[in-house]
Each structure stands twice: as C-alpha cells, then as structure tokens.
Design goal:
Length: 327
C-alpha cells in the first residue's frame, strides 16, 4: 500500500446523489478529496429531483426546504444570497380560510428558485457524478455496480440511499446491515395536476385522510399544482397503476375543493420511501475497519435539514481523520 507521504489525495465513493450524498461529496471535494458519486437516476436530486415539463420544470418531491437551526440555517441564507432559494411567500389555505405564511407558523421555509436537482448538483461541487449507475453491493472499500463493474480502493465508501434500499447491498457488511432492520419508511403518491378556480393561495393544506398538501408550481403560471397524498392513501394504493391512483386522488381533490371536472393529470410518481417513520439516530453510522459509512434521513431523521447535516458531519469527521485513513 502507498504510504501517507506519497498519497496526498484521498478517495471517496458515494452511493446516492440526494442532498445527503451531495453535502458529503461537496464537503470532501472542497477539502481536496477525489470523490465519485454513483446514482441510479439520470441526475442528482433524489427526493429533491426535478420533473421536466413542456413549460419548464416542476417538482414532485419535497416542495420546501426549511431550517430549524444552524448550521443549515446559515447555509440556507447563503443559498438565498446566491439566488438558489427564496423564502416562501403568499397564502396558505388551511381548512376553510387562507392564512398568511406567518399565521400558519411556517417561518424559515424556502422554495428553490433554480431547479432543485441543479441545486443539489451545485452542492456536490467538484465531485464527479456517475448517473444511471445502479449499485448492487458494497464491500470493504469497494462499490459493485449492477452491470458488474467493480470500483475499489476507496479510502471510504459512503452509502446515502434510503435504508430499505441499502439493506440488500450490505450482505458483506453484517454489522451495518443489522442496525438498519428497525427503520421504517412510509410512502407518498405525488401528482402534477391542473385545474381552474379553487382557493386563491399558493399552498393548500388538506385536513383529510387521503390528501396532504398541494403546492402551486410557480414556473408555469397559476394552474399547475403538485398534489401530495397522505401516507394512508399511498399505503392503500401501493400496488395500484398510476391511472388508478391519480384518478382516485383527483376525485378526492374535487370533493375537497368543490371543483367541477375535469382536473388534468400531467404526471404521477410513487415515492415508496418518502419519509422515515423511525431512524437509526445520530448523524451517520460507520464500520471503521471496512471503511464503509451510512448517511441520509434513515440514519439522521426525516427532512432535508437532517439529511444534509448527516452528509456534512460525516465529511468533517473524515477530513479530521485524514492521516489515519491514508494508511
Ligand atoms: C413527497 C415528499 C415531500 C417531502 N416534503 C418535505 C418537506 O416539506 N420538508 C423536508 O424537509 N423534507 C421533505 N421530504 C423529505 C426529504 O425530501 C428527504 O428527507 C431528503 O430529501 C432525503 O435526502 P437523502 O439524500 O437522504 O435521500 P434521497 O434524496 O432519497 O437520495 C438517495 C439517492 O440514492 C439513489 N439510489 C437509491 N438506490 C440506489 C442504488 N441502488 N444505486 C445508486 N443510487 C441509488 C436515489 O436515486 C437517490 O438519488 C419530502 C419527501 C417527499 C418524497
């Protein structure tokens, strides 16, 4: 093995280009690490990815980014300064009344002003992204792709996918795999829908067992909305076709808002692992001997803030352990 003196660049392989993988990748790359990020999707973003539509883009994933505390609070201020995010303004329709954002107690909520997937890509900095690269297994210091390619010799391998998707990759790392078995995720169906009329608000919070939220998509004029189901709805329609689930959601929506047909359904997506109900705890989970660590919301807890911070915290520990890792 090369000695530390001859090896100034450390190498990380990261599975998953969501916000957790991106914050880890960007922090390591900024510290001089060589970072490769593998994602099964066409680009970065994960649950913050973008859907391209005829008129621009829309998002079927997390509509908001919010910060409860530092360091994410100051990171969001920085992204606002760079023009990537803006504080949410406008009305929120809740029950029967339209409230202001402040009345609804949703302070510190932001919406991306650039495509969310672009925002996540920018967070990755100089890390190399390998899209359409599905990972099938992890081994000590090694990533194995579904196409059989073996990428080895990393100083650290980091996995940032939802924990139910990580478990099948961890046969060679039982100590990590065993810690994940109690984590449960709940699903959400999301739809892009277009209708006329309804409340004069930008966000509709449903008090209902089928639908949770509708968010106006600002990139395309007034009529296009992202509609998110409740977890109960998604569990009921987990194996349904897109047509069945979206027709059921559209009819629930019409009833709740008292709108006449037709509601146009432009896209549907099932997030099988939308939000963890439980998580492992802490920011990251590591197998030091085998140089593999896990991050993401299944470890650190639900939400963009926790996922981002899990990637950051692990990267900071790795940067501090540079001399130990280089042997
Ligand atoms: C509908 C919805 C609404 C939400 N609303 C909010 C909200 O308002 N506020 C909030 O804070 N949070 C919200 N969330 C939760 C938030 O989006 C997530 O907590 C956060 O984005 C998780 O980031 P992550 O990096 O941990 O995981 P992800 O974003 O899921 O990233 C994991 C990545 O791993 C990739 N991957 C998976 N398997 C493989 C494989 N085998 N090989 C290669 N790559 C793989 C995936 O393609 C993905 O890009 C919402 C989520 C959903 C779905």
């Amino acid at each position: 093995m090369e000695s530390y003196a001859s090896r100034t660049t450390l190498k990380a392989g990261i599975v998953g280009a969501g916000i957790a993988g991106a914050s880890c990748a960007g922090t390591l790359a900024a510290a001089g690490w060589e970072v490769d990020v593998f994602d099964k999707a066409r680009g970065a973003g994960g649950r913050l990815s973008t859907r391209h539509i005829e008129q621009g883009w829309a998002t079927l994933g997390s509509p908001f980014i919010s910060a409860k505390r530092d360091p994410f609070r100051s990171q969001l201020r920085d992204w606002v300064r760079q023009g990537w995010l803006a504080p949410v303004r406008g009305g929120i329709w809740q029950g029967r009344a339209t409230l202001s954002w402040a009345q609804a107690q949703l302070q510190n909520h932001y919406r991306p002003t650039i495509e969310p997937s672009q925002l996540v890509r920018r967070v990755m900095g100089n890390a190399r992204l390998h899209p359409l690269s599905r990972v099938s297994a992890l081994q000590p210091r090694t990533i194995i792709l579904e196409n059989g390619e073996v990428r080895g010799d990393f100083d650290c391998v980091i996995c940032s996918v939802p924990t139910p998707q990580a478990i099948p990759m961890l046969d060679a790392l039982p100590l990590l795999r065993e810690r994940l078995t109690d984590v449960r995720y709940r699903p959400v169906w999301s739809f892009l829908m277009r209708w006329d009329g309804g409340p004069a608000a930008d966000v509709i919070k449903f008090d209902d067992h089928l639908l949770d939220l509708a968010v106006r998509q600002t990139s395309d004029g007034p009529g296009l909305w992202a509609v998110h189901s409740s977890h109960e709805f998604a569990e009921t329609y987990l194996d349904a076709s897109e047509m069945e689930a979206s027709n059921r959601a559209a009819s629930a929506l019409m009833g709740l808002l008292g709108l006449p047909w037709p509601v146009e359904i432009e896209a549907s997506h099932l997030w099988r692992y939308a939000r963890p109900e439980t998580s492992v705890g802490g920011f990251w989970l590591g197998d030091r001997e085998n140089r593999v660590a896990l991050i993401g919301d299944g470890i650190a807890g639900v939400g963009v803030e926790r996922a981002w911070e899990s990637g950051l915290r692990l990267a900071q520990v790795l940067i501090q352990s540079k001399e130990e890792l280089a042997v």
